[in-house]
Amino acid sequence: MGDVPDNEKAWDKLARAENYKCGQCGQIIPFGERQIYFDRGVCGLCAHHLDKKD
Ligand SMILES: [Zn+2]
Prior knowledge:
The chain is mostly helical. The protein is built from 3 helices and no strands.
């Protein structure tokens, strides 16, 4: 994942600066859901809902 911060404060700052927002609901991606975001472009909750639809 390159130079993605491994602490919550640094992540939050980067997420806002880089506009890391969920492609579904538009919220800033939380620290704990960053891997899901890089994989799928959505937050954890939306990824969960998308999985249910399939
Ligand atoms: Zn979302």
